[in-house]
Amino acid sequence: TGHITLDPGYGNTGSCESAITFIDGERGILRYRGIPIEQFEQAPNFVEVAWLLIFGHLPSADEYKAFADNLTACANLDESMKHHFEGFPRSAPPMAILSAMINALSCFHPELFELEDADRFRVAAAGLISKIRTIAAYAYRHSVGQPYIYPNPALRYVPNFLHMMFSQPYAEHLCDPIVRDAINLVLLLHADHEQNCSTSTVRMVGSSQANLFASCAAGVCALWGPLHGGANAAVLDMLEQIHQGQISPEEYVRLAKDKDSKVRLMGFGHRVYKNFDPRAKMLGKVAERLLPTLGYKDPLLDIARKLEEIALEDPYFVERKLYPNVDFYSGIIMRAIGIPTNMFTVMFAIGRLPGWIAHWWEQAQTQGSRIARPRQIYVGPGVTDHVPRDARS
Ligand code: CMC
């Protein structure tokens, strides 16, 4: 084991070359295929970003239309997939349902497994990006005991998602353009972030040549944890605790600094960003704009601002270069739109899916890419004799 370098959490190990996303953590820069994310703010369009990440360039008008039509065409789930939802308890975490159902797509679309076939990949990618919405919305409808709403072919990506989430069978949900743009921006700001935990997981599973659906189902599981995508729901829980008077913002920050407490300031800190997270900046601005426009006053936004203010002046956070990350404000935006807390991480998954697909495909296309197989440094006992069970003390 002498030649193996230990790098816990892979803080300094490059696992691949990638042309998809560039991050400069010191300067707070994030670019998709070279384009700074701030440039997507004016007319946010998640579907266009998905195309860009996966296929490497902005779609032409024809490419965009074909892709959007493709998304519309494959929005429905196989009818028999609906029975699977019934098997889950009402209280099932939507992330568990999401990963199970994405994996189940492997059973329904085995024709899309071909690794080398670009046309099939395109169909599989569109199918997955479209169906994750339907699965997410059905997971929600199941949890609240309401009938599933079929996708409406007249609606585009985000309005169709909101329709499946919130429409009553007799009255269609109307999508305010302000809400549509806010969700497009939330989704596209989550769309890729190079070798984060879930994307690395997708690549690792894909490196064994497992199919796209199985690899992305694994990505959902990796995203679930509170140190990764689960942080957006954990931020809301933290803000609620403070709002309900269980703890003050000052006391929360004090606890977060105390290593024995195991409490962290959720939505703060990042492995790569050591200056600021550009996504958090943009989402903070959206929250400020969106809430008054919707006529929605949220005391949690004030609490978030207060926590940010305290932490950014505290030497503990300053010395460790801990800033608000993407999860700090996204929950407040989703809450204002009516998305329940247990769906926040599902929204992150919908957003991150194009990134997972892009990385899976990039890896599959890379000549000479190898199965991911990290090494370890063994620290267990030396040679030890087996003792028969009845002779053990
Ligand atoms: N609150 C209090 N202390 C923190 C925090 C925090 N949120 N984040 C890091 N630290 C401390 C940590 O205790 C350590 O201190 P010391 O040097 O004294 O031991 C130092 O800062 C470095 O932290 P680390 O744990 O070595 O950093 P990491 O790169 O391994 O972890 C992180 C990154 C994002 C997991 C971590 O900052 C964290 O747990 N943040 C809270 C959870 C969160 O918001 N996650 C979302 C991340 S962004 C989107 C995503 O990936 O999903």
Automatic annotation (TrEMBL):
Catalytic center at which residues? 270, 327
A Gene Ontology molecular function term of the record: citrate synthase activity
List cellular component terms (GO).
cytoplasm
Q: Which domain of life is it from?
A: Bacteria
> What is catalyzed by this enzyme?
oxaloacetate + acetyl-CoA + H2O = citrate + CoA + H(+)
One BP annotation, GO: tricarboxylic acid cycle
Keyword flag Transferase: yes
Pathway recorded for this protein:
Carbohydrate metabolism; tricarboxylic acid cycle; isocitrate from oxaloacetate: step 1/2
User: What Pfam families does this protein's entry cite?
Assistant: Citrate_synt
What keywords does the record list, in alphabetical order?
A: Acyltransferase, Transferase, Tricarboxylic acid cycle
Q: Which family does it belong to?
A: Belongs to the citrate synthase family.
Protein name in the entry: Citrate synthase
Please give the organism: Thiorhodococcus mannitoliphagus
Q: What is the lineage of its organism?
A: Bacteria, Pseudomonadati, Pseudomonadota, Gammaproteobacteria, Chromatiales
